[in-house]
Design goal:
alpha/beta; 9-stranded antiparallel beta sheet; 8-stranded mixed beta sheet; 17 strands; globular
Length: about 425
């Protein structure tokens, strides 16, 4: 009896581990990783693809039966069903992924324990404006004394949204830091009621904390943000003039309200057709009401006047009783770009549906006005707002980061690494 239980434990231990390999389907390929873990009651499996910006996403419905292990992932659009079997004395996993009407086979190999390029992490907390905020510092194995901080973006996304990038840049030799915005993840507060300056103030506090914690001076630290996070970068650079550089990705060259309106227009232009201008003018009133620039009475009058139009069915009107005024919509980064003196990298995708297409030009003009000629603008052909590659794919169910996105950042940082 003891021997049987012992052998069973050995087999269960052999089933655990990290299994990685290349998933291929037609012109699509990606390195994926399954981490199979076991507690006293069951198996847990996590999915990682750094090029998909996915890190340790937990699988659901994990079922183990003998040498087989099956699990699923549910996205906003698709259900991914994985069926797997351990082979070659548990050194490999042979499996299939079925999504929609497509099934793809793959083989993953168990990774040997090698921590040579695995960054170490440290959970930290700090106080900002009376709130306790939490984050993670990632330390590279070869510390070169350089750092990159990812500032928070819009909505209720926590630090998990930037975890994959934080790990990737740590593997490149950067000490990286990302954290939960107030009111998200494990951080206290309410992001929805905060102004951009209050949120940026949290970023400034986080950067100063990180510098003191790690001993890395501001002059060796860069800051990076995407979308609304990018819009905060010039403000942060103006508050911390010793920071080495800034990286803005998918940054609007207009107010956040105009950016949201541009996205709505792009999403509805085909359906509405020739009346898109009239519809957009009305949708603007809704956003102005949310921003506190238009009274409820005036909006309700406008609704009454326009609701008979055919395009009104496409208008987004929230429950007016539940709307909380959001002054963040009125924020524009341009006045702060006009005063930015540090080196700046501007990255924008040609398939960005959210920000106006000429945002990079508006930002460049502001920097020229400031007398700053140490900036570079890069337009990535086929990149979306989130820097995913939009193009012909034989496996459209997974999206990968644009192949030039990370190398563009790394190469640009290297060009300014020796500047004073």
């Amino acid at each position: 009896m003891f021997s049987c239980n012992f052998n069973s434990k050995i087999k269960k231990d052999q089933k655990k581990g990290s299994f990685s390999g290349i998933f291929k389907h037609g012109n699509f390929s990606d390195k994926i990783l399954f981490e199979i873990e076991r507690d006293s009651a069951s198996f847990n499996v996590f999915f990682t693809s750094l090029e998909q910006n996915a890190n340790r996403i937990p699988f659901q419905n994990v079922e183990v039966n003998g040498d087989s292990i099956n699990f699923k992932l549910q996205s906003d659009f698709y259900l991914y069903s994985f069926k797997n079997k351990w082979i070659d004395n548990y050194s490999k996993i042979q499996g299939s992924l079925s999504v929609d009407t497509t099934t793809t086979l793959y083989i993953l190999e168990k990774e040997l324990l090698d921590n040579s390029n695995v960054p170490k992490s440290e959970e930290v907390s700090f106080e900002s404006n009376g709130l306790r905020l939490n984050g993670t510092i990632w330390y590279p194995n070869s510390n070169e004394g350089k750092a990159l901080i990812n500032v928070t973006s819009s909505g209720n996304a926590d630090r998990s949204a930037s975890r994959a990038e934080a790990i990737l840049f740590a593997q490149m030799g950067f000490t990286t830091f990302h954290y939960d915005k107030r009111g998200t993840g494990n951080s206290e507060g309410n992001w929805n009621s905060a102004t951009i300056k209050e949120l940026s103030g949290d970023d400034v506090t986080a950067i100063n904390y990180f510098s003191k914690k790690t001993g890395i001076p501001l002059k060796k630290i860069g800051v990076k943000g995407s979308s609304q996070g990018a819009a905060k970068i010039p403000y942060i650079l103006s508050e911390l003039e010793d920071l080495k550089y800034g990286i803005v990705v998918s940054c609007p060259g207009v107010t956040l309200l105009e950016s949201d309106l541009n996205y709505w227009r792009n999403r509805n232009a085909d359906a509405i057709g020739n009346e898109i201008d009239a519809a957009t003018n009305f949708q603007r009133k809704v956003f102005e009401f949310i921003a506190g620039e238009l009274s409820r009475t005036d909006l309700e009058k406008a609704i009454e006047n326009e609701k008979s139009n055919s395009w009104f069915a496409h208008i987004w009107v929230p429950n007016l009783d539940e709307v909380q005024t959001d002054k963040k919509l009125l924020y524009s980064p341009i006045p702060y770009f006009v005063t930015t003196k540090q080196p700046l990298l501007i990255i924008q995708g040609t398939k960005d549906e959210i920000i106006p297409l000429n945002s990079d030009e508006i930002i460049s003009e502001a920097l020229i006005t400031s007398g700053n000629d140490n900036f570079k603008t890069v337009l990535l052909e086929g990149a979306s707002h989130s820097m995913y590659n939009i193009g012909e794919s034989d496996f459209p169910y997974w999206s990968k980061l644009h192949p030039d996105y990370l190398t563009t950042i790394e190469n640009w940082i290297n060009t300014i690494s020796n500047t004073k």
